[in-house]
Specification:
Elements lengths: L7 E2 L5 H15 L1 H4 L26 E7 L8 E11 L5 E11 L11 E5 L11 H6 L7 H15 L3 E5 L11 H18 L10 E6 L1 H16 L7 E5 L5 H8 L5 H14 L11 H9 L5 H7 L18 H7 L13 E6 L7 H13 L4 E6 L4 H7 L1 H12 L8 E3 L1
Helix pairs in contact: 1-4, 5-6, 7-8, 8-10
Length: 413
């Protein structure tokens, strides 16, 4: 069953987010000179798993601390919580989430809304984790967190609380859907258990992510009915949605974004040691695997400018090899559709994630009876769409928090 295609449209003006970005991003960019030293998560005892972790229920807080957000005196109260979650092999692992609440009273009806915002973690090492940057760890691996600052700030200015999890977990498992989705869901449980600043059991709950953050957001939505039936979303928004991982990797191979291809290859090799991917690497590829085992996405983009995967393998066309597809297939979204009303958006000219995969995922979701509003954006390429379409995404969440009903089924906007 194919969905009815929505009309393509350009984004609404983004002046609100631009204003927020000017205020808070300027403060954030000045922080390296002002902030105190922050140890990497691997060297920070707060991140270490407690010996009795398995005794805690899913999402229970094992420890917490209040932090100055970005190491700056911002008008936001922030905490980091460690909580029990479970990896894709059902082993208990410690999760980390940062919970942010504006220092403003909530004037809306009911309890303060809680937005689970997924930053594109996109890395293989703990220094790439959002919690490190949000505490004031100033390394280039935190760029995704800094880029997403305006969106989180806009939510906080609306009076919403925000929770963002290090959903890749303590092993920094990029491209692990179950691991990511569970990390998000248990991070929400932990934020509710912390219950700061007006968050309560009836707080309306939303989720939002773009690109890698959309991957984690939609995996959380897919797992929610069985893994976390107590976590009920009022609405979900996601854009630049990763679908068809081999096509994503092939699309940027040999381009200025080739480091993202290497990120996918490295993650597949590390996460699936029995898939035969390592055996298909040549000496150069094995050096890459050793040297970049804990790299962040931006590190790889800089290092592998215009590189081609075939120069690192003994097997030609690795990205279309059946073993590669067998390793990425379980990470594709769509086995279950979101149960909550959902707003999805994607650029028709996305230069990182081909729009064809987005269309195929929409087909799967809508065939399962999901309630989805979708937008084919005319904004050029991947990154501009993240900013330009954010106004529509946030407006959709605001309507869901206010209890505005949605029309059932799939509708283009």
């Amino acid at each position: 069953m194919k969905i009815l295609r929505g009309r393509w449209r350009a984004a609404a003006p983004a002046w609100v987010l631009a204003a927020v970005a000017m205020v808070i991003s300027a403060s954030v960019m000045m922080a390296p000179a002002a902030g105190a030293y922050v140890p990497r998560p691997d060297a920070d005892p707060f991140y270490a798993a407690p010996a009795d972790l398995a005794d805690y229920p899913d999402g229970a807080i094992t420890r917490s601390r209040q932090i100055p957000l970005y190491g700056l005196p911002l008008p936001v109260s922030a905490w980091q919580v460690q909580y029990r979650t479970n990896d894709a092999s059902d082993r208990p692992v410690p999760g980390i989430a940062t919970v942010m609440v504006p220092n403003l009273p909530w004037f809306g009806p009911g309890e303060r809304p809680l937005l689970s915002y997924q930053i594109a973690e996109d890395g293989l090492g703990s220094q790439c984790a959002p919690s490190y940057a949000l505490r004031g760890g100033w390394e280039i691996g935190g760029i995704s967190t800094w880029i997403d600052t305006p969106f989180m700030a806009a939510a906080l200015l609306r009076g919403w609380a925000v929770v963002t999890s290090d959903y890749e977990g303590p092993q920094s498992r990029f491209l692990d859907g179950v691991n990511s989705g569970r990390g998000v869901l248990d991070g929400i449980r932990a934020a509710r258990a912390l219950a700061p600043g007006g968050i309560g059991p009836t707080s309306p709950l939303g989720a939002w992510g773009y690109s890698g953050g959309a991957f984690a957001t939609l995996w959380a939505a897919q797992l929610q009915p069985d893994y976390a039936p107590d976590v009920r979303f009022a609405g979900i928004t996601s854009g630049g949605v990763p679908a068809n991982w081999p096509a994503i990797a092939q699309g940027v191979d040999g381009t200025v974004q080739a480091g993202l291809t290497m990120l996918v290859v490295l993650a597949v090799a590390q996460n699936n040691p029995d898939a035969g991917i390592v055996e298909m690497l040549n000496d150069r590829g094995r050096r890459m695997l050793a040297e970049d085992a804990t790299a962040c996405g931006l590190d790889l983009v800089v290092k592998y400018l215009n590189a081609r995967v075939d120069d690192y393998t003994i097997e030609p066309n690795l990205l279309s090899h059946p073993s590669f597809r067998a390793a990425t297939d379980p990470q594709e979204l769509g086995a279950g559709a979101p149960q909550a009303p959902t707003y999805l958006y994607h650029s028709t000219t996305d230069d990182v994630i081909p729009v064809a995969g987005f269309t195929e995922l929409l087909d799967r979701y809508c065939a399962q009876g999901a309630d989805i509003s979708f937008v084919y954006s005319l904004l050029p390429s991947h990154n501009p769409t993240a900013a330009g379409e954010a106004v529509g995404a946030m407006g959709y969440l605001a309507d869901r928090f206010a209890g505005v009903p949605v029309a059932p089924g799939c509708h283009g906007g």
